[in-house]
Amino acid sequence: MPEHVQTVYGSNILESELAPLQPYVLVTMEMPWQVCKQRFSTIPPAHIARVNSLDVEKLDAVYEGLPDNVNIVGLGGGTALDSAKYFAYRRQRRPLLIPSITSSNGPFTDFISIRKNGGSFGFKVDGYPKKIVVDYDLIRLANPRYNRAGYGDLLYIQTTLNDWRIAGADSTEQPVDPSIEQRLISIMDSAFANAEEIGAGTDQGIRLLMEHTQESSGLYIDYPQYPISAGSEHLFAWNLELVTGKELIHGEMVSLGVVISSFLQRKYVKDSRYRELRQALDTAGVLYHPDEIGVGWDEIQQTLLTVEEYNQRVRKFHSVFGKTAWTPALFEELREYVVLRSPDVV
Known about the structure:
The protein is of the alpha/beta class. Helices cover 52% and strands 11% of the residues. The chain has 16 helices and ten strands. It has helices spanning 14-18, 30-36, 56-64, 78-91, 136-139, 144-154, 156-169, 178-193, 195-200, 203-222, 232-244, 250-265, 274-284, 290-293, 297-315, 328-338, and strands at 5-10, 24-28, 47-50, 71-76, 96-99, 111-112, 115-116, 119-120, 123-124, 130-135. A six-stranded parallel beta sheet has the order 1-10-5-4-2-3, with helices on both faces. A two-stranded antiparallel sheet has the order 6-9. The chain is globular. The mean pLDDT is 93.
């Protein structure tokens, strides 16, 4: 693990980690604050900075209202934690980041994912020092649905690896590095083997999920030359949001993307592990079926028809979508697998 990232795990450890930081500003959003505020009653913040966007102009306005000579603590998911990282970076302080759910890799990365004018404006701070507190009891205060979505967002590793294998075989991408491939497979093997534990939200399950999330984040930070930060599953999720205009849970969208992508990848990769992926999601209780997460088949179909255009315009990934010719027969086969939940399609 990167030495500049210190992660502490335990039950009811929040208060002892906050004590040395007084006075501190708590950067959070309304939902995690309402769920977790009782845990901050013993050692309350000097100021609460509520954020609701990663837009840099809005963040700068909040930043101007922060008191001087305080430490920066973040509580929540990706938006709150990236906001805390941004404020701490501007103050040249090491932030303390407290995930309230497991469905974000934000605390572990060196990226600060802010936006400008609705578009990406994030930046990377190599070796950005931060401390992360994973308090099992605090995380279990959240709706289990959000934590299970974090497991779905971990399984992207397999479909991203499959995309790399396909692109490498076509000579459109660097060949797969065997050592990196083995590390990714090792994470996936553990993720599959512990699906039930992770879905149940036990201490061990939470720790495994967060450790694997940190390890995968570290890999793409250390090896930016390799296409392992995201793949076709994220292309699907990002485009689904654009097509539907709906506020959907990111990990659930990615999970649906994993099911779709791995099903398509089975034609090009000897073992896309598509059966294992869907079984793992089901075992962990992750919601990904369209009717469960609030999308219709027509929206999925429109997302798939436009995903490669979105990719070439915005991301320029080499993915299975670039090799897929959409036909009525393929859509029907995919609908049977995804919507009708057929156990298998040969």
